[in-house]
Amino acid sequence: MAVISRGFGARRRESDDRLPPGQYLTEDFPVLSAGPTPRIDTDTWEFVVVGLDGIRRTWSWDELLALPVDTITTDIHCVTRWSKLGTHWRGVSLDHLLQDAGGGDFTRVFSYGGYTTNVPRADLTGGKAWIAVEFDGQPLAPEHGGPARLLVPHLYFWKSAKWVHGLDLLEKDEPGFWEQNGYNMYGDPWKEERYW
Q1: For 1-21, what is each residue's pLDDT tens digit?
Q2: What is the DSSP string of 109-136?
Q3: Largest CB tally within 10 Å, which of 47, 129, 155, 160?
Q4: What is each CA distance from 13 to 117, 166, 184, in whole angstroms?
Q5: Average pLDDT over residues 58-76
Q6: What span, in angstroms and rounded, lies between the C-alpha atoms of 8 and 31?
Q7: Which Pfam families does the UniProt record give (predicted)?
């Protein structure tokens, strides 16, 4: 069962070149979830990277926050057609977490609660993706994926997995939850890659 919040009554601004085709601007931050909101304590939270070699590399909450934390201002775009411009986040770049992880051109991102999505590794590196821990100057709220979510702002927001737990490095692309249910394997909002 999907959970949907207020915020879907957005408006289109044709003149804004930051708004991808088919998107509408919202000032709210709508919530859409495929199931109940998990509650994860930072004392037990961990981020896991599983390499092609099967080796698990893990970071506790404190270990994650000991890495350099970036401040990110970016636009986000949901496949349900809303966009929110100029959002403010803080998080740890995936560049730090993947630098010693070995090979694999693809990833399967997995979350507390069982959600998965696929993201090419190239879309997680080069300063393009973060493990976000704050939104708008506050710790990330559970309904928005707290304590930590993946943030991949150049793709539709379903790729920015809430309640992120880790990722598996893969040799070939494999669909995640929404991709198995008809969503596009990549999800570029500028090409309107919403569905298969």
Answers
A1: 344 444 444 444 545 789 999
A2: EEETTS-EEEEEGGGTSSS--EEEEEET
A3: 129
A4: 30, 36, 25
A5: 98
A6: 9
A7: Oxidored_molyb (PF00174)
CATH superfamily for 3-38+45-191 is Oxidoreductase, molybdopterin-binding domain (3.90.420.10)
Element (H, E) at 63: helix 61-65
**20 vs 9, 12, 96, CA distance in Å?**
17, 10, 30
Residue spans per domain, the chain: 3-38+45-191
Q: Give the CA distances from residue 116 to residues 107, 167, 169, 182, in Å, rounded to whole numbers and listed in that order.
A: 10, 9, 13, 14
The answer to whether the CB of 130 falls within 8 A of the CB of 76 is: no
End-to-end CA distance of the chain: 22
Which pLDDT does position 113 carry in this prediction? 93
CA 105 remoteness from chain centre: 18
Residue 190 burial (CB count, 10 A): 10
